[in-house]
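Teaching note: in complex prediction, the entire set of molecules is handled at once rather than each chain in isolation. The prompt given to students was simply: 'Predict the structure of this complex.' The entities are:
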Amino acid sequence: MTPGSLSRNPSVLIFLATLALFTLAVTFLSEAAGAGLISTSFVKTLGKTLCLCLIALAMDLIWGFAGILSLGHFAFFALGGYMIGMWLMYARTEVIVVEALAGAGLPPTPQEIRDGIASQIFGVVGGSDLPAIWAFAGSLPAQLALVVLVPGTLALVFGWLAFRSRVTGVYLSILTQAMTLALALYLFQNDSGLRGNNGLSGLQNIPGAEAVGQDWLSVWFFWASAAALGLGYALAAWVVSGKFGSVIRAIRDDEARVRFLGYPVEVYKLTVFTLTAVITAIAGALYYPQAGIINPAEMAPIASIYLAVWVAIGGRGRLYGAVIGAVFVSLLSSWFTGGRAPDLNLGFYTVKWVDWWQIVLGLSFVLVTLYAPRGIGGLFDLIAGLRAPDRRGAALGPGDGALREQEAKE
Amino acid sequence: MSALLEVSGISVTFDGFRAINNLSFEIGPAELRAVIGPNGAGKTTFMDIVTGKTRPDSGKVLFGERSVNLLGMTEAQIARAGVGRKFQRPTVFEDQSVAENLMMALKADRGPFAVLRWRPRPEHHARVAELASEVGLADHLPRKAGELSHGQKQWLEIGMLLAQEPRLLLVDEPAAGMTLAEREHTTRLLVDLAKTRAVVVVEHDMDFVRRLACKVTVLHEGAVLAEGSLDHVTRNPAVIEVYLGRG
Ligand SMILES: Nc1ncnc2c1ncn2[C@@H]1O[C@H](COP(=O)(O)OP(=O)(O)OP(=O)(O)O)[C@@H](O)[C@H]1O
Ligand SMILES: [Mg+2]
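The expected output is the structure of the full assembly:
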């Protein structure tokens, strides 16, 4: 990142400073390092929220900037989680198996250890062999590489097929959703090699760090998530700052015209799709150790729709909007659904937020799309005195993802 | 002088309707050509074929010294090979500034990784400013293209076309929605451009075509009806019947 692009994007510095302050504050208020005002479980919630901010950022790149409403990014998120989860589960089970076998006179052979691990992990689905996809599960570097490679390759292959045949708009969204659903259904099977609907569990226990308590582990992961979000933000801001950003916004608004300028539109879409899939996978790999468990239900269609709602409510096409949307909606959502929100007594009816929250969220999504398409980010434009250009209701291009009149800034 | 673009025997059928019927066309490397014809004659479809938007059912489109066949190429490849196009309706990127629009069109490597690393240098800014003043938008560089008037958008699109430095320019009704002064400016620009490259102009306005003072090709029902100077073709009885006689 050059100094020039930083001065043109003051939001990057503001964002990074805010993130750093927030990270420090949470650290000093946590149980591990300070006052203990923030419980370990809430530190985990905050850490997970930062990961959700990162996937929202990726969603803004692909949807807000490139105009592709992907409903498939939770598949990449979960795959990232599965890849790191395999190592976490394998390595931890290995410790347990080795301990158990140490009691028997002879030292165990590597084969005995492998068999022991396999039956420990796959006992729940009635298996005792380690599936082939677990071949590298014993190696942290290998699984870390797979966190990037598996979702990246899936995005590359899927994107290549979809973009090459020029599927766009709502059909593309449906296609990405179908991919996610197919993957979820496959993983639900017991013989998929990833423990079916049991998923992977115990991921909060980090092998080799048994001596470290959850209080510190939660802070470590919080830091890692904050670092990933900061880097991701800087990267995304750099990507959209120059001519590349111009080209993908142009693709969003009128992709046919971009072709006649000589840009290979499909290659650009594929690049952004794969890049965002990789960012998303890294977010997933940080999220699930904090959540402790991952199963195929994480890829449910609703998750991808939530993602689109965060970005829309935050305001698309402005990066920080996506982050604000993710923080705002996911924290509010966990407050309402966690039973902490007091019931609202209307006299004739008591509103229980656990039941009503989804409806409120859906309604606010509709209202925001209709009346405030610039979302929460639009408030910043009000402060900065930016108005939407008057285009008499016309969108900014014929593309399906084209920015609408009220979303634009003058 | 060999031709820069050589179109031979192309035909296109839309749902049984023959929009282009065994059309052949040729233009030299530094030539101005006007294409006229009644509504629905196939002028825009002809441009669609040359630029790769529409695939013909048969025929050949050869381009450049090495006579590469454009039919096997994508729109983007054809554009990179040196064919630029201005659309009938002005199409610019409305959410971006005039400068960004021009910067995107500047001739440079179009690959995503090259573009990611690309940062404008002083000479690029200078070139953009030069192009903007050439099309009368020097004072509008930071403005969003969406705020420009119809005529200004036409100009911006012409500016983008110039920035691409194409060897062949296809211009679809450039003067539509322009004032008289703007039309004159456009004429001068097109005549000037045709000194160094091939320019094909589609236009309905006869006065405009007359001012271009170039060879004219008359299209009718997807085929060439007549070719020659404007006076020559307007004396042609077939042309008078299908085109002038009607209006
Ligand atoms: N994609 C398409 N599908 C079906 N028919 C088409 C398509 N494109 C063009 N046509 C038809 O082909 C014929 C030629 O159209 P074209 O747009 O090339 O005419 P034109 O000479 O540019 O006319 P104008 O002067 O009105 O711009 C018209 O009858 C049109 O309806
Ligand atoms: Mg036309």
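Point out the following to students. The longest helix of chain A spans residues 73-102. Strands of chain A lie at 200-201, 293-294, 344-345, 350-351.
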